[in-house]
Amino acid sequence: MNKTVNQKAWFFVAPVLILVAFNAIVPLMTVVNYSVQETFGDNVFFWAGLRWFEEILRSPRFHDALGRQLFFTGTILAIEIPLGVIIALAMPRKGPWVSVCLVLMAMPLLIPWNVVGAMWNIFGLPELGLLGKTLNMIGFDYNYTRQPGDAWFTLILMDVWHWTSLVVLLAYAGLVSIPDAYYQAARIDGASSWAIFRYIQLPKMKRVLTIAVLLRFMDSFNIYTEPSVLTGGGPGNSTTLLSLDLVKIALGQFDLGPAAAMSLIYFLVILLFSWIFYTVMTRGEEQ
Amino acid sequence: MARITLKNLKHAYMPNPVNDEDWALKELNLDWDDGGAYALLGPSGCGKTTLLNLISGLLTPSHGSILFDDHDVTGLPPEQRKIAQVFQFPVVYDTMTVYDNLAFPLRNRGVDETTVNKRVLEVAEMNDLTATLGNRASGLTADGKQKISLGRGLVRTDVNAILFDEPLTVIDPHLKFQLRSKLKELHTRVPNTMIYVTHDQTEAITFADKVVVMNVGEVVQVGTPKELFEEPHHTFVGHFIGSPGMNVLGCEVKNGQAYIAGKRIQTANKASAKAGKSEIGVRPEFVKFAGRGLEARVVKVSDAGRFSVVEADSAGGRVRLLVEEGGAIPSDSAHLEFDPTATRIYTDGWLAGREGQP
Amino acid sequence: MARAKWLIPTIYIIFLMLPIYWLVSMSFKTTNEILGSFTLWPQNFTLENYRTIFTDPTWYTGYINSIIYVTINTVLSVTVALPAAYAFSRYRFLGDKHLFFWLLTNRMAPAAVFALPFFQLYSAIGIFDTHLAVALAHTLFNVPLAVWILEGFMSGVPKQLDETAYVDGYSFPAFFVKIFIPTIAAGVGVAAFFCFMFSWVELLLAKTLTAVAAKPIAATMTKTASSSGYELGLLAAAGTLTIIPGAIVIYFVRNYIAKGFALGRV
After folding, report:
1. Predicted pLDDT at B211
2. Could you say which of A25, A45, B30, C151 is the most buried, measured as most Cβ atoms within 10 Å of its Cβ?
3. How far is CA B338 from CA B236, B243, B262, B335, B342, in A?
4. Which chain B positions have a beta carbon within 8 Å of A179's beta carbon?
5. Domain spanning B4-230: which superfamily?
6. Residue C2 pLDDT > 60
7. Residue B314 CB: number of other CB atoms within 10 A?
8. CATH 3.40.50.300 is right for the domain spanning B245-351
9. Which chains touch A (3 or more CB pairs under 8 A)?
10. Contact at CB, A3 and C139, closer than 8 angstroms
């Protein structure tokens, strides 16, 4: 659509601008401010320069948290994206079952995140939970509160449970937007189901899948509540992801300087990765 | 290439059809000659696309059978029927080049690359696509895309028939004519059986040697464009083809003769013995003002260039007739005369004497 | 192969329902049963946990608080997003693209980064521990989202609609309220749904910005879990109750969800 140039449109945007600016710019400036100062309480601040940034970037604690974060995000993306696509492909296209599937699948998305954590906490309990008890009964020595491996397994399973539906819904929306004629033409051209997937379904899903990957990337990098309720970052620090660590430093220890510096690095990492993903995935579309 | 035979074919989209209206396609027997250019003409929702999809195998008929050269293909899926189909909205594989699009149906069938290359170049040449072979198919205009869809059908050497489902719907008006003559030209070069679905009589008549006219799920007439014009087998055909369409007037029948308001009308056929609603059909081209005949009152005259379309009310209903430029048009009451060789009696819509026979 | 296709969504849905079932089933069990023996379904069916929640104000006010701030947030987000989305979909103006992108980056902001500055900012202006504080904080990610979704729907409405209305003598506000908004009602529904959803499920900010008066139900639960030991039945019942509003909302918008996602605007 060709749009008319109209500077008065700023009046329409003004309420949003004021609201978001109040919410985003003021706090962000606070963070930047803290990140270059040191405090010993009582609102007395000293200039610290880039010391906190250096300290954070060099600290093994941050490296470990970032490493765990990347492992977590990589794993859930590698599971949720293909799984979501497979489920979307297998879903019925019309009929009464579509609504049933959509409603049931959207359920996990609307449960408060701490309830998700609490639910999996209960579900995985070795003696009282359905999952924990079952795994132990069939011979696994499963205890997510004590063994890091089990904690990771539960954490990833919980995220797959929580968020795969988002990928399914997006991929499904991409699939149903393909006109029937494409499938009919492909059948007449003698295309195999793989060829149909490769040359019709996948290209048509590319846009929504880009969004799915971006959203899952951003949200998994931001994840806090669920792991904090499920494992609290433990056992030890084995499941302490970036935001868990950040909240520990900021609200737990009240180390404002390092916490602020870490916040900014964290935010920049997300922006950088999102930008890379976006550029790579939309490259070629412009040609 | 093959002759296509439809035997007692019937189709319903619902599992247990009860009423007549439940059938999207009513019982049908029809032969399509090998190498013919056919048009399937009718208003939207008359079952044309259903019939087309039954032939291509995208639908399986609820009843009856389909034969290609006397082989029963009723149960076969589309890929085994050796059919090509061009759809209303152009279908191209966006991520592939024009070349790969054209090669796709051959590669799916495991044809070797030398043959693929030879066929693709041939077909590209026929469709004026040679210059764009290396381009991404997604960047093409609608008519370019439609040429690719068509090319994917022509590229195969084993095709029994090419089916077109209103292929010019999304094409710009000035390109429609071009593409249509292209099709006609292709048919002379590649003498495949072609079936062209459309709701546009001009498209049907310019493309086809034979036109199959459909209405509410049944075939009402099969014939050359000339036959459809001169001897419509159903009032629907008379009405749908020709502009303005055939006049259909209410009448009474006594002893096989037709009367309007007590006045005898001479007709080419005799009324059938069957009871039913009787009507007289006559095209505007075969009505003229005369000293005597059916009484009527002129209500409207519209100028259509070389002639005028005159509308007059008679006891049988509104009559349209054509008067050549400069011809006298009575201002009020007049008498109308019908050409007896082109005036026919219809019973319940069907031409009297051959009810239910398309 | 084709016939077994329905198995995949079925197995997935069963997988989704198992933890929910476990939570619901536990909410009907007595503490003795939960701790005493492993049972697949409640042996001594009890509503005691629910009775506690509905009679103890520290519990049920949590629900009321959550619903209040989620509602304020949804109404606020959609209301301010409507004119902005209209501007983005219809006009070009200085800095429009940068502004749109900047709005979207806020969707990426980790709540953890903003928790502390929000706490200080809202305390400074004296709205700490109010419903408004949480509702305002959630606009940080809901307003960009609502603008994004609504812009998608509005771009689908031809400009001729606007022009016809002006020719018919409508003033801009009258056109916007009486003609334009009803035309994109589905979009407003989808936007409201997602605002509701993200505000309802978020806890970190909601918990940080409240103490007593506006404390969300989710925070009450966290406290129970940590302070009073294992009151699992009560926790399960409270959790079950938080699923219900979401389930009701999904049911009403089920036909729009796919449409909203189809625009790729989430």
Report:
1. 92
2. C151
3. 20, 18, 16, 10, 8
4. 89, 91
5. P-loop containing nucleotide triphosphate hydrolases (3.40.50.300)
6. no
7. 21
8. no
9. B, C
10. no
